[in-house]
């Protein structure tokens, strides 16, 4: 798909910057409803991460292990939805949200970038992806959603659902770059743009995102080479392209 077509199919708010795991800070824990509400209040697009529970429900959290954001050990894929809801709280006191709860809160007032986080041991790539598609059946406007993943096995099965898909690329898995033609866009570790003209030139013909920017100077520098930037710890007033 040509870049121009991708841009026509996306909410322009994506291009103003995407709040990584919500607009989180010391007060609001990442990937929690408080952080998502903060992004909503600031009219910012939101990035979030989704895992599949033991009983096939969708939980929003970055890590498979809940310990970092809740201070309590627990692997999402080994727990039921009810066990997570009843036994874990985020550090800001909020419950770990389901994808449905986030969709209800946001209600497409701002766009969402949804990262699919599979369990590589259980190889639930397709199962996770299709469960997310089932949850997204109720959306009103697909221009409000971008689906991302480091795993092509998650993105390939959902092509027919007509969401914009971006392949995540990190330095550890750079070989995945060879699969870039299979997807509508790329979401690349911003360090690439600081060292490689190959990546800097891609934005001319490919929809490009960069992650994760943590200061306004880097935001300004990297913004030259991409269409959208995922950021954290930056004040909204500094998101000037």
SSE class: alpha/beta
Following the backbone from N to C, one meets helices and strands in this order, namely HEHEEHHHEHEHEEHHEHE
Distance between the termini: 25 Å
Q: Can you identify the CATH superfamily?
A: Phosphatidylinositol (PI) phosphodiesterase
Count of folded domains: 1
Level of helix content? 25-40%
Strand order of the largest sheet: 1-2-4-5-6-7-8-9
| Main beta-sheet annotation | 8 strands, parallel, barrel
**Topology-level CATH name:** TIM Barrel
Strand content: 15-25%
- Any idea of the CATH class? Alpha Beta
Q: What value does the Rg take, in angstroms?
A: 17 Å
Number of helical elements: 10
Could you tell me the number of beta strands? 9
* Integer average pLDDT: 96
Low-pLDDT ranges: none
What overall form do the CA principal axes indicate? Answer: globular
Examine the secondary-structure arrangement and name the CATH architecture: Alpha-Beta Barrel
């Amino acid at each position: 798909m040509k870049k121009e077509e991708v841009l026509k199919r996306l909410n322009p708010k994506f291009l103003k910057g995407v709040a990584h795991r919500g607009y989180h800070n010391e007060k609001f824990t990442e990937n929690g409803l408080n952080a998502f509400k903060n992004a909503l209040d600031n009219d910012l697009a939101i990035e979030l991460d989704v895992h599949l529970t033991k009983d096939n429900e969708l939980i929003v959290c970055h890590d498979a292990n809940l310990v970092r954001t809740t201070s309590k050990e627990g692997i999402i894929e080994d727990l039921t939805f009810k066990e997570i809801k009843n036994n874990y709280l985020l550090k800001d006191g909020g419950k770990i949200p389901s994808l449905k709860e986030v969709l209800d809160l946001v209600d497409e007032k701002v766009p969402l970038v949804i990262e699919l986080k599979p369990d590589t041991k259980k190889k639930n790539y397709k199962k996770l992806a299709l469960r997310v598609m089932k949850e997204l059946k109720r959306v009103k406007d697909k221009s409000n959603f971008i689906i991302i993943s480091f795993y092509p096995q998650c993105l390939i099965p959902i092509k027919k659902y007509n969401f914009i898909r971006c392949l995540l690329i990190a330095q550890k898995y750079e070989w995945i770059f060879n699969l870039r033609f299979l997807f509508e866009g790329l979401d690349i570790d911003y360090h690439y743009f600081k060292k490689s003209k190959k990546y800097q030139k891609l934005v001319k013909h490919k929809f490009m995102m960069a992650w994760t920017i943590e200061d306004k100077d880097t935001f300004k520098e990297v913004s030259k080479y991409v269409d959208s930037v995922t950021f954290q710890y930056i004040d909204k007033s500094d998101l000037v392209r």
